[in-house]
Structure to design on (170 residues):
């Protein structure tokens, strides 16, 4: 009887040790969310802008600080590119970014909203737009002067709707 109890205790101990080793092994190979984020490749956006536009470069700096990679293309005229990509004149701004999947991001859209869109692109959409150049949007910082603005969802049929409102509280 004593041998059986000793054998049983040894088996329980061995089982516990093996369980501990498996757990410890899992802990060593599991990455924290931050290290996983750092190991992912940056999303590249091709950014088309004019060579002299300073606010466009500030927007590129904004997306790069948020983890994107901005591949800048300086063009003297962006009209044909915008037409080819289905961006109507009422939705245009000073620069156009295009993802590898072909989605367009027109104007001073916050990087977090681009990330949100790319994580789950709405059906029949071609991208997002912030028409004009709203004060306080990324690249259009003017001290404490800010205005509220809409980020529009551009649809493949040429229509648009509000994707997200940006409320700048003073």
């Amino acid at each position: 009887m004593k041998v059986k109890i000793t054998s049983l205790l040894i088996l329980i101990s061995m089982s516990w040790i093996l369980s501990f080793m498996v757990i410890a092994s899992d802990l060593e190979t599991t990455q924290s969310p931050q290290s996983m984020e750092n190991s992912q490749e940056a999303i590249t956006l091709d950014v088309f802008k004019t060579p002299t536009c300073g606010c466009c470069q500030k927007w590129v700096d904004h997306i790069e600080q948020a983890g994107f990679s901005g591949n800048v293309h300086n063009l003297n005229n962006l009209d044909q590119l915008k037409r080819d990509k289905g961006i109507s004149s009422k939705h245009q701004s000073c620069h156009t970014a295009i993802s590898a999947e072909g989605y367009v991001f027109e104007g001073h859209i916050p990087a977090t909203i681009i990330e949100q869109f790319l994580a789950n692109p709405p059906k029949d959409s071609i991208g997002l737009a912030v028409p004009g150049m709203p004060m306080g949007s990324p690249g259009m910082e003017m001290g404490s002067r800010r205005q509220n603005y809409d980020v529009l969802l551009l649809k493949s049929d040429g229509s648009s709707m509000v994707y997200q409102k940006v409320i700048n509280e003073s």
